[in-house]
Design goal:
Helix content is about 30%, strand content about 25%. With about 160 residues, it is α+β, with helices and mostly antiparallel strands. It has one domain. A hairpin with a 2-residue loop joins β4 and β5. The termini are far apart.
């Protein structure tokens, strides 16, 4: 089986992507197995970027901020896995001060950002020509809203 499994005990399926040293810091608690063959290329790239954030040290921003929390990384991973757009671009994934994660997509003059804090609360921002046009809180379980934001991005 060629899949990714996310659990507190690093699995052999994770081992297919990362060495033991790289896996030693990975422990998001995702249940189940995600088959790589069921993912889009952009989703695979985004999940890899998320794992890289787990390697950040405390004070990564020189202001004493902790690295992204496992809760934030797990929530971001579930968001990425829940998007059903096959031919899309991988988001820019950046850490946020305080232990959060931000996913940023841009296409032409439009942009969408989803910021997930260390407790998995999330907000979004839509921008056009670099200027904010809409923002608000978002439920990460509301994939219809997330999908509508991303469809707006590419329209």
């Amino acid at each position: 089986m060629n899949g990714l499994q996310f659990s507190t005990s690093t699995s052999s399926t994770l081992g297919q992507m990362y060495s033991q040293t790289q896996r030693s810091y990975m422990s998001p608690q995702w249940s189940g197995v995600v088959l790589v063959s069921e993912l889009s290329q952009w989703q695979i790239e985004a999940i890899r970027k998320l794992f890289q954030l787990l390697a950040l040290d405390s004070d990564w921003d020189s202001y004493g901020s902790p690295p992204p929390s496992e809760v934030a990384v797990t929530a971001a991973g579930r968001l990425i896995l829940g998007i059903d757009l096959d031919y899309f671009v991988s988001p820019r994934i950046v850490p946020v001060s305080g232990g959060g994660v931000q996913l940023e997509w841009s296409f032409g003059s439009r942009g969408v950002e989803i910021e997930i804090d260390d407790e998995a609360s999330a907000g979004y921002l839509k921008s056009h020509h670099g200027k904010p046009i809409e923002e608000g809180q978002i439920s990460l379980a509301d994939f219809s809203l997330i999908r509508s934001l991303l469809i707006w991005l590419i329209e």
